[in-house]
Design goal:
Elements (H helix, E strand, L loop, with lengths): L2 H12 L18 H18 L15 E3 L6 E5 L18 E3 L6 E3 L11 E3 L4 E5 L11 E3 L4 E5 L11 E3 L4 E5 H5 L7 E3 L4 E4 L14 E3 L4 E5 L11 E3 L4 E5 L11 E3 L4 E5 L13 E3 L4 E4 L3 H7 L16 E3 L9 H5 L10 E3 L6 E3 L6 E4 L5 E5 L3 H4 L2 E3 L4 E5 L10 E3 L5 E4 L3 H8 L2 E4 L3 E2 L3 H9 L3 E2 L5 E3 L4 E3 L2 E2 L3 E3 L1 H4 L1 H4 E3 L3 E4 L2 E4 L4 E2 L9 E2 L4 E2 L11 E2 L3 E3 L2 E3 L4 E4 L2 E4 H4 L1 E2 L5 E2 L4 E2 L3 E3 L7 E3 L5 H4 L10 E2 L5 E2 L3 E4 L2 E4 L5 H26 L11 H26 L20 H5 L5 H8 L1 H4 L2 H29 L3 H25 L1 E2 L13 E2 L13 H34 L6 E9 L2 E8 ...
Parallel strand pairs: 2-3, 3-5, 4-6, 5-7, 6-8, 7-9, 8-10, 9-11, 10-12, 11-13, 12-14, 13-15, 14-16, 15-17, 16-18, 17-19, 18-20, 19-21, 21-22, 22-26, 23-27, 26-28, 27-29, 28-30, 29-31, 30-36, 46-49
Antiparallel strand pairs: 1-2, 24-25, 32-35, 33-34, 34-37, 38-39, 40-41, 42-43, 44-45, 46-47, 48-50, 51-52, 53-54, 55-56, 57-58, 59-60, 60-62, 61-62, 61-63
């Protein structure tokens, strides 16, 4: 601000004070006092709103900062720089001319001044006041408006009526508008500062009436455009700030502002450079800011010569008053001498900044430089004035290459040469800088000559940190810092070889480092080359330690890659040994060399994993070595080695089989042959004996004879289901160990395999051959016996069929199981894991399932042929038997007995036919069967039976009440009528049974003769279908054991058969039906016991049918057996009955407590 403008502003601000020297003139006595009181109240309220903290005086005009009119009590001036309150909503002080409120905490809206049209001075700068300038659109008295750094908004054209405005400062507000519209009639403006606003427009308005008096123009960072030359009319201008605008023009236009002192053209589009025109101009210019503009500044060619020709006689200086010059990031792009020598005679230049301006080359000699004296002689030791006054010379981010002296003020000067590519210092320059305390900033600049720097370090004039304090992670080095406030350097550019080392992960020398390539590392500073990672490991670039070398498998152990403890190397990877079932108690173990776990073995010597051996005796078979246990061999150590024989599923040395054992086995074999021969001789050649009198003992023998096959079948299927505990299909994972009694019970399957195990033929002959022949003959032997039975049929009608059925009872399950075993593959180990190509046949364990030629072909032929026989041919044989009896015995179902005039003490029975008539000779036996059935169901005690012409009668001679049968569930839940109906149906069913028995005795068909024993087991002969179903069940059960989810099928089949037999009650003896149904239920429990490894439940399921059998012994008789006895007795008395005589019979079930009367 010029001296004239300052004086003018003070005169305007305080002109009214000169009129109030006499305190007596403060009030106009002609005015009413109540008006003054009202003014005082308004002022006091306003001061309270503004946050005035001082005491209120009696005379409001005496308040600090308050000035009243000299002719009245009206307030004209309010000045309070400490008031931190809020502008009132409406100021009622009509005569107010000046308001100065500059506390940063002041708030409010300028609409409060809407009723103060006489306002001349408004200063709210730096407050939080807001509002729109449109409040002042009709104000004409403004002289000064200081609203910079507030929240004011609005269009600047709202101030166009304030034509007396001289000082306007709206910098850092949000006003907008066109500069030309505002300046059009503003002839009295002295200072205009609209920087950092949204003002736009150009300089056209400055070429009119207002051109003469404007001294300060601030339009920084606005949208103003135009040419710099458009402002040359502003002759009084001493400060110009166009920073950050789109103004263009040439720097030479500055020379036309004769009074200019401060110029800021930073970030504009102004161009130009120093020329000879600058001589003698701009003598008042003190500050020239050209940062980031397009000004080149440094003269070239002739202009450079004109501006650098100095003479002591004619010391003509350009810009003699210049103190501050900022050329940062300007396109100077000239040698350092072109920039500095034209300014060398500037006596007041203090700050020269040309960072990033493209200056290059050697620094000129400003101390002891060359100049010509008045007599024309050359002077080589002249010190230019600039070198004695300069405080800051900033040539950072340029390319200065030579520095010969220190042209700055001693003790306070600073020379900045940061980030110059490479610079050479004259000898002794660093020492002089230290001596004269001239700050020399060479950070980021490389020294071309390091000798002096090294010497200063050695002499201790330059100190460094003890530690490597600076780290450049990008370039990969660390350096010690130079501890000096004078010489400021970057160690990696100053003395890299001495002060710097490469970081770990890098290699090289000094600060020239390269990152370690992949698969290499450096674990200490300053390594010239990187170390290689161990074999079979990789590391990323820049690895800093050996641990960064990640092994392709495992981890580092003693500097090499190997698997950790409890892990093994397999196919280039480390796998948990427990998954491979290997023992890895140390690190560095490979899967091919580790010992298998106990109970596990390898499938082959080079295998990289082990498989669980099959039970029983897996701990003995697989002791955790590379070989099978003693006496075991083959895949999964499943077979006995040479010199060993199988006993109870385990291999025992043949030495244990002494001569006594051999002779004992021979004796048992001979004894079995003798017994078989005797039974055959007795059955074929000896005549049948007359049946002994019926007794409890004989009934019990007959019952046990019928129950024995049921128990045999139960035991045979129980031993078949024991394989579930050794299969992977069970939920327990096939880990169940067989019970010790299983091998002995398996012998009851009566197969040749079990026979050779008993006779120890493996010790006498080639073990492999013996096992294979035994496996092949096990399913074939029963079939050969059946073929022999066919030959016996030729000897006597029905004999071969009878023997075949007996053979099937004994050998069917064993043969079918052997056929299934022969075709089954052991495709999984004891844990259910697949054996792959090592799967072997269960019956012939040295034979792989993948083999199809040679022996394998014949094994398949035998297996499939046997399976066809057991699964198809034998069931078809039984189907044929069932069909044959159906048609042969159809007559028994064509008549029924009806009771006439029956009473509890007497009944008369007649036969009714459904079709045709019965022969006369057959009628008596049919009537006897009917009355025997009726009495067995409805009667007890002594009864007289009398056969009449066409009917038969029974009369009680000492009848007894039939005891209740609490085990007869149907009658327990039925009412009386239903119970009688049940008895009637049972009587009819028993009568039909006896009739079938009569017809079987009379039959001539060899099939019926041979199957008489089988058919008579069932209540009715047509129930023989159950025999077929049980055979198919046995085939299904032995087949599904080797299937997936076998245990589910086994349970389902067993429960189904238990329900079927229990519901149908097919046997003549209900005890047999109960035992058969209960046995199937126990087989279901057996399946559960083996799959969940519950041996106690398996034993309970095995013994439960035997316990039931002993329970049934308590009452071995039944209705059907009673009826059969009554019929036999009446049949023996048939001649007597045919003569019309009565016969007395005792109708009574037999128990151990009493026997029937003969």
């Amino acid at each position: 601000m010029g001296p004239f403008s300052v004086a003018l502003q003070w005169m305007l601000l305080y002109s009214s004070a000169a009129l109030r020297d006499d305190p007596s003139e403060h009030l106009n006595l002609d005015e009413p006092s109540d008006e003054c009181e009202e003014e005082a109240k308004l002022l006091q309220q306003m001061m309270l709103d503004l946050g005035f903290k001082g005491p209120m005086t009696k005379d409001h005009c005496d308040l600090p900062g308050i000035t009243c009119s000299p002719h009245s009590c009206k307030v004209e001036t309010i000045r309070c720089t400490t008031c931190a309150g809020h502008l009132p909503d409406y100021i009622r002080l009509k005569g107010l001319e000046e308001v100065t409120l500059t506390s940063p905490e002041m708030t409010g809206d300028i609409k409060a001044f809407a009723a103060t049209p006489d306002l001349k001075i408004l200063d709210l700068h730096g407050t939080k006041v807001t509002g729109d300038l449109e409040v002042f659109q009709n104000f004409t008295s403004f002289l000064t408006m200081q609203l910079h750094d507030t929240g004011i908004v609005g269009d600047i054209k709202s101030l166009t009526e304030a034509i007396w405005l001289q000082f306007l400062d709206l910098e850092n507000t949000k006003i907008h508008g066109d500069l030309n519209v505002f300046c059009k009639d503003m002839q009295r403006l002295v200072q205009l500062n609209l920087g950092n606003t949204r003002i736009s427009g150009d300089f056209t308005g400055f070429q009119g009436k207002m051109a003469g008096g404007l001294e300060l123009l601030g339009l920084a960072n606005t949208g103003v455009t135009g040419q710099l030359s458009d402002l040359v009319a502003l002759k009084q201008l001493w400060k110009l700030n166009l920073r950050g605008t789109a103004v263009t023009g040439n720097l030479v236009d500055i020379t036309k502002f004769y009074r200019i002192q401060q110029v800021d053209l930073s970030f504009t589009r102004v161009v130009g450079q120093l020329t000879a025109d600058w001589k003698g101009c701009c003598r008042l210019l003190r500050s020239l800011r050209l940062q980031n503009s397009s000004v080149q500044f440094a003269p070239v060619g002739k202009d450079f010569g004109d501006l650098t020709t100095f003479s002591m006689a004619f010391p003509e200086v350009i810009l003699p008053n210049l103190r501050y010059l900022d050329l940062t990031n300007c396109p100077v792009n000239s040698p350092a001498k072109n920039l500095l020598l034209p300014l060398a005679m500037c006596k007041r230049l203090t700050f020269l900044m040309a960072s990033g301006s493209g200056v290059f080359g050697a620094m000129p000699q400003l101390k002891e430089g060359i100049i010509y004296a008045s007599d024309g002689r050359r002077r080589d030791d002249f010190t230019f004035p600039m070198a004695t006054r300069l405080l800051l010379l900033d040539l950072s981010y340029n390319n200065v290459s030579w520095l010969s002296d220190l042209p700055v003020l001693t003790g306070a000067g600073r020379m900045l040469f940061r980030e110059n590519h490479q610079i050479k210092l004259s000898p002794g320059l660093l020492a002089r800088a230290l001596e004269k305390h001239i700050i020399l900033d060479l950070r980021g600049t490389k020294l071309s000559n390091e000798e002096e720097a090294l010497q200063l370090l050695q002499e201790g004039q330059l100190q460094t940190t003890d530690m490597y304090a600076y780290r450049d992670e990008i370039a990969g080095y660390t350096c010690k810092d130079v501890v000096s406030t004078i010489i400021q350097v970057t160690s990696s550019r100053f003395l890299p070889e001495t002060l710097c080392k490469c970081l770990p992960g890098w290699h090289g020398h000094g600060a020239t480092c390269q990152v370690c390539p992949a698969n290499k590392f450096s674990d200490e500073m300053g390594l010239g080359t990187c170390k290689s990672c161990p074999a079979n490991s990789t590391a990323p670039e820049g690895s800093t330690k050996l641990a960064h070398c990640k092994c392709d498998f495992g981890n580092l152990h003693n500097g090499t890659c190997s698997c950790d403890k409890h892990h093994a190397l397999i196919k280039g990877d480390c796998v948990l040994c427990s998954k491979l079932h290997l023992q890895c108690n140390t690190s560095g173990v490979s899967a091919s060399s580790a010992l298998p776990e106990i109970s596990f073995t390898r499938l082959q010597r080079s295998a990289e994993e082990a498989h669980r051996c099959l039970p029983p005796g897996e701990l003995e078979r697989c002791p955790g070595n590379h070989q099978c246990g003693l006496g075991y061999d083959g895949t999964l150590c499943a077979t006995c080695a040479a010199g060993f024989w199988a006993k109870a599923g385990r291999c025992r040395p043949c030495a244990e089989m002494n001569s006594t054992s051999i002779w004992y086995a021979v004796f048992l074999g001979v004894a079995a042959l003798v017994v078989a021969a005797f039974l055959a001789y007795r059955h074929v050649f000896l005549p049948r004996q007359v049946a002994p009198p019926v007794s409890v003992k004989s009934l019990l023998q007959k019952l046990i004879t019928l129950q024995a096959p049921v128990l045999l079948q139960m035991v045979q299927l129980w031993s078949v289901l024991s394989r579930l505990g050794r299969s992977s299909s069970s939920p327990s994972g096939g880990s169940s160990q067989s019970l010790p009694e299983v091998p002995y019970l398996e012998a009851l399957q009566l197969t040749t395999t079990e026979l050779q195990n008993s006779l120890n033929l493996q010790c006498a002959f080639n073990a492999e051959t013996v096992r294979m022949l035994a496996a092949l003959s096990s399913p074939v032997a029963p079939l050969l016996l059946l073929a022999c039975c066919a030959a016996l049929e030729l000897y006597r009608a029905g004999f071969g069929v009878s023997m075949a059925l007996k053979t099937l009872t004994l050998l069917f399950i064993g043969g079918a199981s052997s056929a299934s075993e022969l075709l089954s593959c052991q495709s999984v180990d004891g844990d259910g894991e697949s054996l792959g190509d090592f799967a072997f046949r269960k019956a012939i364990r040295h034979l792989r399932c993948s083999e199809t030629d040679g022996v394998a072909f014949w094994v398949d032929m035998v297996g499939y042929s046997s399976a066809l026989a057991y699964g198809v041919l034998i069931p078809l044989f039984l189907v044929g038997l069932m069909v044959r009896q159906y048609f042969a015995l159809q007559e028994a179902r064509l008549f029924y007995a009806s009771a006439e005039g029956g009473t509890p003490q007497h009944v008369t029975l007649r036969l009714q036919t459904l079709h045709g008539q019965l022969p006369e000779e057959a009628l008596p036996k049919r009537l006897l069967a009917a009355v025997a059935a009726h009495m067995a169901v409805h009667c007890r005690g002594k009864w007289l039976v009398q056969l009449q012409d066409g009917y038969i009668s029974a009369t009680s001679s000492g009848g007894e009440e039939i005891p209740a049968d609490h085990l007869d569930l149907m009658k327990v839940v039925a009412d009386a009528k239903t119970s009688r109906n049940i008895d009637v149906l049972r009587s009819r069913r028993v009568a039909e049974m006896l009739t079938e028995r009569i017809m079987l005795e009379e039959a001539k068909d060899r099939w019926l003769i041979g199957s008489q024993a089988l058919l008579c087991k069932y209540m009715l002969c047509q129930d023989v279908w159950m025999h077929l179903v049980m055979k198919l069940f046995a085939v299904a059960l032995v087949s599904c054991v080797s299937m997936s989810d076998a245990w589910k099928w086994a349970i389902a089949f067993s429960l189904g058969m238990a329900v079927l037999v229990g519901a149908c009650q097919p046997y003549m003896w209900p005890q047999v039906s109960q035992l058969q149904s209960f046995s199937y239920l126990c087989l279901a429990l057996t399946s559960v016991a083996f799959i969940y490894d519950w041996p106690w439940l398996a034993r309970v399921a095995l013994m439960a049918p035997v316990i039931l059998l002993f329970w049934q012994v308590r009452e071995p008789d039944c209705r059907a057996a009673l009826a059969e006895r009554l019929y036999q007795e009446l049949e023996s008395e048939l001649p007597k009955l045919q003569r019309g005589e009565a016969h007395e019979v005792i109708v009574q079930k037999l128990r151990f407590s009493r026997e029937a009367v003969p």
